[in-house]
Amino acid sequence: MSAGSQASRKPARGDLLELGLTEIDERGRTLGRFEEFTVAVRGGVLGSRVRARVLRRRRNGIEAVLDEERVPSPERVPARCTHVASCGGCSFQELAYPAQLAAKERLLTRILAPLAPTRIEPVLACDEPWNYRNKMDFTFGAARWIEPGEPEGAESGFALGLHARGHFQKVLDVKACEIAFPEAVPIVASVRALARELGLGAWDVRARAGLLRHLVLRKGWASGAILADLVTTEEAPERVEPLASALLGRHPELTTLVQHVNPGVAMVASGALARTFRGSGVIEERLGGLTFAISAASFFQTNTPQAEKLVALVRAWADPRPGETVFDLYAGCGVFALALARSAGAARVVGFELVEPAVEDARANAARNSLADVRFVAGDLALTLSPEQLALRSLPRPDVVVVDPPRAGLHARVLESLRLLEPRRIVHVSCNARSAVPDLAALVESGYRLDAVQPVDLFPHTPHLECVFRLERATS
Ligand SMILES: C[S@@+](CC[C@H](N)C(=O)[O-])C[C@H]1O[C@@H](n2cnc3c(N)ncnc32)[C@H](O)[C@@H]1O
Fold first, then answer.
1. 332 pLDDT higher than 50
2. Which ligand 1 atom sits nearest the alpha carbon of residue 328?
3. Other CB atoms within 10 Å distance of the CB of residue 199
4. Which atom, in ligand 1's list, is nearest to the CA of 405?
């Protein structure tokens, strides 16, 4: 069904549509119009004209997959990575970086439209948009993704890499990755080869069996230290030790190697610490003029140079007055809280965080940076932020609050506590503008004015965009 011979019926599964791709969405797809329908295409380059095959119809549009490129995009650039067609990681690698940023800006403008912000600042771009990730979480799988062109009957029972695009049970054997820190891929290749030589099995999602689950790699940008974490279903020292010692023999650059055990079915790269084969289990990183110790499980911003810009922005926008109290909600291992304590004239900085090990890291980081006055409260913010709970801990009401919630956004009780606490300023850091919109709308409803919006590109070639919002209390 070409645009020239349009039928009036809504396109059905299997139909071929010809259309121009003009926008992107948050799921890494490109969007175009066919008649009155919005079509989300997997695999096309923004600015191209394509033929796409309909996968499914949705109430508000059509999902399709690229069938053939008809007219290439003027913004098309050669892919750097050999896995571009199959990997779920970088959706926009073949789109020139400035065009990615412009498309992300337009996407953000559409998402924030209900808030009618007076101005959205241009995205803070990455100076180096390649090899920027300081952490990679690779998955072992018992169903290897077979690349097009591989010989019939190729062995497929073991893989170590990333999920294949759109096929979450299949794991692509990663041989290259242009966004990971450069030392990561050779370590992955060694672990894969050694695991096969030693006959170790990969986690089988369907059978819920198999020893090896994840390989997490982390690098300290400033220290150069590299951490590897093997996540397994059981401790199995007789099988894991030979792998660990051979790996350490091949990779002297690995400063620390640990093993975590996760016997559950959830696909999470964490668990209980079982063994430390080399080093301390933590690496050092510098951010905002501070030193952080990061373990395998702690949350830490994954793009260190861009995180510097983010921290500088949060500092500048929070800007507490002498004697004021600042709360850092969803504090992780304390990055914003400590950065604010270092620079601000604030009398008091308090961080709030759910995950106990992250709180321990935050306290240790405070001590490491001689900022022992910064307090950290452990627990669920839905409970710990209420005025009664603050009074129980003898904590004053905050004047300035920084929030950096997970993708789902703020809990209703956190919003309610903020409404009761009435800080004069809120700096909202969001990795998901879509979920931030209702939170921001609720804050505006309760007397705040959204007076600045600054997107920061932490994740080039992917649809993700970090965004910082500043809200001022309009009625006080
Ligand atoms: C996006 S991270 C932000 C971390 C930190 N601001 C940073 O930049 O390193 C979100 C953090 O919120 C924490 N978190 C999630 N749910 C929470 C809750 N209900 N109460 C408190 N903290 C929570 C997570 O453990 C995680 O550390």
1. yes
2. 6
3. 8
4. 10
